[in-house]
Design brief:
The protein is of the alpha+beta class. The protein contains 2 helices and 5 strands. A hairpin with a 4-residue loop joins β1 and β2.
Length: 187
């Protein structure tokens, strides 16, 4: 009499089921890791852009303030002229300090916007303002992005706030969510 040795079909099916569950868990873990990495990349970009405009303001402070010494963030419409400030190796040519300030703000706002090459921020927008309560400003109309009327700059206080918003997709629902990065400084 011979005895058969080996796996039964049920044992093979159970092993395949356990392996499949493990692989699905691994795929979910990989997806969550990619999503978290993307979110961290966007926060890093926002941080670099915020510190960039703060440094530009510090280096050209007189041009970023009005006659009373108060900072005024010109609306985007005021930055559409064709100011070109170029570095010739030792100085900026073809610009006075006020034009350089407007040029810096224009370039900063352009850098906030998402581009086909993957730079910028999705639905990126931002402002620099005097603000006694810098940790405010949100998507009041729930459209998934921040519009200029939602910046919540009060013009009070003694610190400048750089507020940057962008859109990320909620990992659970897939709906757009506005994210914010804020830093304060005194030039």
């Amino acid at each position: 009499m011979r005895t058969e040795a080996g796996f039964t079909l049920i044992e093979v099916l159970v092993a395949v089921l356990v392996l499949s569950i493990g692989l699905l868990g691994l795929a979910k873990l990989q997806t969550l890791g990619l999503h978290a990495n993307h979110g961290a990349d966007l926060r890093t970009r926002a941080s670099l852009l915020a510190y960039d405009i703060a440094d530009r303001m510090r280096s050209n402070r007189a041009a970023f303030v009005d006659a009373n010494g108060n900072y005024v963030d010109p609306p985007a419409d005021d930055l559409t002229d064709n100011i070109i400030c170029e570095w010739n190796g030792s100085a900026v040519t073809d610009c006075d300090p006020a034009e350089m300030a407007r040029f810096d703000l224009k370039k900063w706002r352009e850098a906030l916007a998402a581009k086909p090459d993957g730079t910028g921020l999705p639905d990126g927008t931002g402002t620099v303002c005097l603000d006694a309560t810098p940790d405010d400003g949100k998507d009041d109309n729930n459209n998934g992005r921040i519009d200029p009327e939602e910046y919540a700059c009060d013009g009070a206080g003694s610190v400048y706030a750089v507020k940057i918003w962008w859109t990320e997709l909620n990992e659970k629902t897939g709906t757009p969510v506005a994210r914010r990065f804020v830093t304060t400084f005194q030039p």
